[in-house]
Design brief:
The chain has one domain. The protein is an all-alpha fold.
Amino acid sequence: MSHVTYLEAAVVGLVQGVTELFPVSSLGHNVLIPALVGGSWASDLNVAAPESPYLAFIVGLHVATAIALVIYFWRDWVRIVGGFLTSIRDRQIVTVDQRLAWMIILATIPVGLVGLVFEHEFRVLFGKPVRAAIFLLINGLILYAGERFRTRRSLAADAEIAAEAAADAELAAEAAAADGRAAAKAQASSAAAVAAPGAAVSGAAAPGTAVHSAAMHASGQRAVRQLEATRAIQADARLVKVGYWEGLIIGSAQILALLAGISRDGVVMVTGMFRGLSRQDAARFSFLLSTPVIFAAGALKVGDLTGPLGDGIGGQVLVGSILSGVGAYLSVRFLMRYFQARTLTPFAIYCFVAGLGSVIYLSAH
């Protein structure tokens, strides 16, 4: 039986964590990298091989990826889970959190059913390196088309969010100016205290100045977190406006990600923008939808890792999981800021070039 080395586990774990959330297909990369490296990598890390521990390994890493997403969005998931529970208790779906919870549930059902029934067939049929390269190329075309043919509703949604951000920035500037005036007044009071006879030794720092600076820093951090929480609530209010049917359509796009080379987050974002979401809201909805799907996919393979397929690779799984979780957390932090003002086009170009190059290389060898 093939084995997974620590180097392979580290590379695959990091690639899994990063590419799962970037719109470039984690499964596609995990199929292509071993084939491009060749040698023992190609035999050890063959996702289409029967009884291979590699598939269980990379899907098991999904648990770490999902945990990273939960950590990043923990405040949102507290609200969403709370909305689900209160909707059951009160037998009604009224609030934004309740509606979003059921949108996520409904949007997850199609890919869950298809994955359970056809995962093996998809893996065997499309888990070949050349086919993964072709689908990676197609993924690039999908991302490019998503940006090139944005709907008017999606562009208008972008403009609406930009206007809200500008208003928030103006309020933040006014608050900062007010804080600055308060800081100056406090510093003047501290200086006056120092100037009093016997108040302090010459050249010493003003009493309370360090404490005041630390308090101002803590206050600033709280303000940033509060602003992020407010924007998240505003985004969720916009998401639920699209309705359950649109949410189901957007969520169903995840089925395409069962094809190695097609990105889950990429196709969900493109579908979301096509249905009228802003790029930023489409990215947020994509990450929220990904969490239960990735978690479920990983949980289903945990049994394989604890069985015969996982014999001798416990340490490798741990290394891969740690790097996968760290990579995923850093990726989602970056992407949530990136999609506030930037496009899918760079990822489209990357996928097209990497896919085409891989097809040429693999076809020649």
